[in-house]
Design a protein that fits this description.
Layout lengths: L1 E2 L1 H6 L2 E2 L3 E2 L5 E2 L18 E2 L10 E6 L3 E7 L4 E4 L5 E2 L4 E2 L5 E5 L8 E10 L11 H4 L4 E5 L4 H4 L3 E2 L4 H9 L3 E6 L9 E3 L6 E3 L4 E4 L11 E6 L2 E13 L5 E7 L10 H10 L20 H10 L14 H13 L10 H10 L2
Parallel strand pairs: 1-20, 14-20
Antiparallel strand pairs: 2-3, 4-17, 5-16, 6-7, 6-11, 7-8, 8-13, 9-10, 11-12, 12-13, 15-16, 15-19, 17-18, 18-21, 19-20, 20-21
């Protein structure tokens, strides 16, 4: 991912804990969003990639020589970072036929695969190994796949970054999550839960957070769980280092694709691919991916102290139901004992 450490080292702190990226900084003082700078989060937990919503996230492989992360936003369209599609060794863009998306990938298996049919990147993006912030803000790609793999594994919605989301991130009612294939865990999907978001940059087009994102995580989604749905808030484009041990990752806001408030080139590319902000879609029960993330729910029930066991792959049955009911009662939720995406969002918010 892009390293902008030199830029951030020259940046000055605004208030207590919010970094300004020179002229690109956007202060959230109007929302009262100032506090201690969070330490970098742990490097994430491995989840089961065959379960939705993780099944909609996959590896973007370029001619077998490099990889990044990408994610489905419709049956045939993925979003990723533009620099993932550029061959820095030869100084050329990878032809679509050499770009492959693999969904539900873990270790020696996967659920679905498709090569790219075509893709669009920003005309203002300049490929650089260590790009400046202004180049990072154009680092997006809309890729159309040859096959409708989203029918089997589902896809994610696109969430615009509005004031309600910003307030929710501040007060804990909305939780940011990062998920991707990192270089040090190239064959497993890692998820960073509860990524603190201290502020924005680039006139609000960039999102800073402190979950750990390393090489391979370029193009991965910054997710939010809200109202029973999981949506993409941003696309990861850079890793940035701050002062005094403070570290942040940078995600390009998905709002750039919004027809009303987005960036012209991104909106045009999204429209051509048939995209618009909205809800995602879990796979049907008879499709390749599992529509409910049972393994992740079990994992977080254990993390929250409601379920015993060494791993999340056991068949818990009645024990899981009792654990869910106990969690729901504790947090003032409707008691159903049933696993769901809504429950997953509550479990993530309960992690501390």
């Amino acid at each position: 991912m892009a390293d902008t450490s030199s830029t951030l080292r020259r940046a000055r702190r605004i208030g207590a804990g919010l970094w300004g990226l020179r002229l690109w900084a956007v202060c959230l003082a109007a929302l009262g969003w100032l506090g201690p700078a969070p330490a970098i989060a742990e490097r994430g937990l491995i989840v089961d990639a065959v379960e939705y919503p993780w099944s909609a996230i996959g590896r973007v492989n370029a001619a077998g020589r490099s990889f990044c992360t990408g994610f489905l936003v419709s049956e045939r369209v993925i979003l990723t970072a533009a620099h993932c599609l550029y061959d820095f060794r030869t100084g050329r863009w990878w032809p679509p036929r050499e770009v492959h998306f693999v969904a539900g990938y873990q270790r020696d298996s996967y659920l679905e695969h498709s090569r790219a049919k075509s893709y669009e990147v920003s005309r203002d993006y300049t490929p650089q190994r260590k790009p400046a912030i202004e180049h990072t803000l154009e680092d997006w790609a809309v890729v159309t796949l040859a096959e409708p793999v989203g029918r089997e594994v589902g896809w994610l919605g696109i969430q615009t970054l509005d004031r309600a989301i910003l307030r929710g991130l501040k007060n804990g009612k909305v939780t940011a999550v990062q998920a991707g294939y990192r270089r040090d865990r190239a064959h497993a999907l890692s998820v960073g839960f509860n990524c603190p978001v201290p502020g924005l940059f680039g006139d609000g087009r960039g999102i800073l957070h402190s979950c750990d994102v390393v090489e391979g995580g370029s193009g991965s989604p910054l997710l939010v769980f809200r109202n029973g749905h999981v949506s993409v808030l941003g696309i990861h484009t850079m890793r940035a280092l701050g002062r005094n041990g403070d570290e942040y990752a940078g995600a390009l806001s998905a709002s750039i694709f919004d027809p009303k408030r987005g960036v012209r080139g991104a909106v045009t590319a999204a429209r051509a691919a048939g995209l618009s902000p909205g809800l995602g879609a879990a796979p049907a029960a008879d499709r390749a991916a599992d529509p409910v993330p049972l393994s992740t729910i079990d994992l977080l029930l254990r993390k929250n102290g409601y379920l015993s066991g060494a791993d999340g792959r056991g068949t818990y049955g009645g024990e899981r139901k009792a654990a869910i009911e106990a969690f729901q009662r504790k947090h003032g939720l409707r008691v159903s004992g049933k696993p769901s995406i809504t429950l997953l969002g509550h479990l993530i918010r309960a992690l501390r």
